[in-house]
């Protein structure tokens, strides 16, 4: 019998439960500098899967990846009045380098609108250069007074998209397209139901005309902002003098957008799917979708190796836990804490009976399944050549997005998560008809 994980119950103290899961599942811990975060290998592997899926979706819209400097001259931020006022309390500023005082202070990147728009002004000359569609994966620094791992840290990882367009309407369409990319990723990959809507003027991104958000509802009934998309209008174009020559021969200001999502989404996954036994990972972002635990070495271990090989051959990320120096209970609890979607347990008695035990993490249900290659009775003819390893037998398909509560509208009615009846809900955007690489003329 596996030992139970010792976690504070969600119903007793949800914030403490969250901290317990992050620590016990070995996801992250605080760094030596206040507000910094160390992302441990298991969490970073989850982030890599999230990043790869998001990156694929972003590129499918015609956006290209690039990289921009970590250090930004202070004068760049001062060019856009609302932007610098909005970010001033969060800035980390470098005043000395190489043992000398710098001629101009450098801001450690809190976001990259200023430096990217500075370069847009150099790269964009003609309507043929538009749209310019860029994204970068990077770290950013925003001074945080009340840090909380994954949710609010001084330094965090994210992607930020930046685009320039010929018209305000094109920028608005891009803003909505990015929002839809986020919504689809969060619901299809993370299995988190979100509500999309527009932020109020008071909550708008500093320097934006319009800001849209994806809000996830956590198991404690609170909302978490999981991604935002901004129509910056002509604000940064005027500040950085980004003009292009139109097809009619007129000089026009471009309209720009920015949009971003971060490692905060991982915190959202924890709080959406986790239970009193630990993390529960959607299979799409589980580094190990199935963990196989042999209870003994020798023939049991060899049989498990065959099962693992069959699973990998069918596209399932399978891992064999050979930590025989640990008790079976300790090993089981470790993987339950880490949220692995399924475990397969096989001991000498199961091997003799031609069966293994399948444990689902979502329901914690246990069931016997045939173990091919054993000395026991052959697998039923209803199973494939992989016996228990048939993908349809495993809880590794995408689950339905979790709707753990109901959004309550300001008018007193209710709207299920994801419903367009939420106040300010954003309509599903129409896909951009032609997504061109930067500088590439259409046709």
Protein model, in words:
The chain is of the alpha+beta class and 443 residues long. It has 11 helices and 21 strands. The protein has helices at 14-24, 41-59, 74-78, 81-87, 113-123, 168-188, 235-239, 264-273, 299-313, 328-338, 348-353, and strands spanning 28-30, 37-39, 64-65, 71-73, 93-97, 100-108, 132-141, 155-165, 194-198, 210-217, 223-233, 243-245, 251-253, 255-262, 290-294, 318-320, 342-346, 355-360, 366-370, 406-408, 414-416. A 7-stranded mixed β-sheet has the order 3-7-8-14-11-10-9, with helices on both faces. Helix 2 (41-59) crosses helix 6. The longest helix has 21 residues, at 168-188. It is elongated. The termini are far apart. The relative contact order is 0.13. Residues 373-394, 403-430 and 433-443 have low confidence and may be disordered.
Q: What assembly state would you assign to the polypeptide chains in this entry?
A: single chain
Kindly report the spatial arrangement of strands forming the biggest sheet.
Answer: 3-7-8-14-11-10-9
Distance between the termini: 66 Å
- Which strand-content bin applies to the residues? 25-35%
Gross morphology is elongated
Strand elements, count: 21
Helical content band: 25-40%
Biggest beta sheet summary? 7 strands, mixed
- Global mean pLDDT: 85
Helix/strand-derived category reads: alpha+beta
Number of helices: 11
Brief description of this entry?
The protein is of the alpha+beta class.
Chain-wise SSE layout:
Elements: H1 14-24, E1 28-30, E2 37-39, H2 41-59, E3 64-65, E4 71-73, H3 74-78, H4 81-87, E5 93-97, E6 100-108, H5 113-123, E7 132-141, E8 155-165, H6 168-188, E9 194-198, E10 210-217, E11 223-233, H7 235-239, E12 243-245, E13 251-253, E14 255-262, H8 264-273, E15 290-294, H9 299-313, E16 318-320, H10 328-338, E17 342-346, H11 348-353, E18 355-360, E19 366-370, E20 406-408, E21 414-416
Parallel strand pairs: 3-7, 15-16, 15-17
Antiparallel strand pairs: 1-2, 4-6, 5-6, 7-8, 8-14, 9-10, 10-11, 11-14, 12-13, 17-18, 18-19, 20-21
Helix pairs in contact: 2-6
């Amino acid at each position: 019998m596996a030992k139970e994980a010792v976690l504070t119950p969600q119903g007793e103290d949800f914030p403490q439960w969250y901290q317990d899961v992050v620590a016990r599942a070995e996801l992250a811990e605080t760094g030596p500098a206040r507000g910094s975060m160390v992302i441990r290998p298991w969490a970073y592997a989850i982030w890599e899967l999230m990043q790869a899926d998001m990156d694929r979706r972003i590129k499918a819209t015609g956006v290209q990846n690039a990289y921009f400097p970590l250090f930004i001259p202070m004068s760049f931020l001062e060019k856009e009045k609302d932007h610098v006022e909005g970010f001033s309390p969060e800035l980390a500023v470098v005043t000395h380098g190489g043992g000398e005082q710098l001629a101009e202070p450098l801001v450690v990147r809190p976001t990259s609108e200023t430096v990217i728009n500075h370069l847009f002004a150099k790269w964009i000359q003609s309507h043929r250069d538009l749209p310019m569609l860029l994204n970068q994966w990077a770290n950013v620094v925003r001074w945080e007074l009340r840090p909380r791992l994954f949710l609010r840290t001084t330094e965090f990882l994210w992607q930020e998209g930046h685009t320039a367009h010929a018209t305000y309407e094109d920028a608005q369409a891009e803003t909505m397209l990015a929002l839809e990319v986020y919504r689809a990723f969060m619901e299809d990959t993370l299995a988190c139901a979100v509500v999309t809507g527009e932020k109020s003027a008071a909550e708008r991104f500093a320097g934006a005309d319009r800001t849209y958000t994806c809000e996830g509802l956590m198991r404690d009934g609170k909302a978490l902002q999981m991604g935002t998309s901004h129509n910056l209008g002509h604000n940064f174009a005027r500040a950085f003098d980004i003009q292009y020559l139109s097809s009619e021969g007129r000089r026009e200001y471009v309209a720009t957008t920015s949009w971003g999502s971060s490692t905060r989404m991982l915190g959202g996954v924890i709080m959406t799917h986790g239970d009193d036994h630990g993390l529960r990972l959607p299979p799409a972002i589980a580094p190990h979708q199935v963990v196989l635990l042999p209870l003994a070495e020798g023939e049991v271990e060899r049989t498990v190796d065959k099962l693992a090989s069959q699973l990998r051959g069918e596209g399932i990320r399978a891992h064999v836990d050979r930590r025989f120096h640990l008790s079976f209970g300790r090993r089981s609890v470790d993987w339950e804490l880490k949220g692995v979607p399924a475990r397969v347990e096989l001991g000498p008695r199961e091997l003799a009976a031609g069966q293994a035990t399948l444990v689902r993490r979502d329901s914690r249900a246990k069931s016997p399944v045939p173990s091919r290659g054993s000395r026991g009775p052959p697998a039923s003819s209803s199973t494939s050549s992989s016996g228990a390893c048939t993908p349809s037998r495993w809880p590794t398909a995408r689950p339905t997005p979790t709707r753990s509560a109901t959004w309550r509208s300001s008018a007193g009615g209710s709207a299920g998560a994801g419903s367009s009846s939420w106040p300010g809900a954003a309509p599903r955007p129409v896909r951009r008809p032609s997504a061109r690489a930067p500088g590439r003329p259409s046709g």
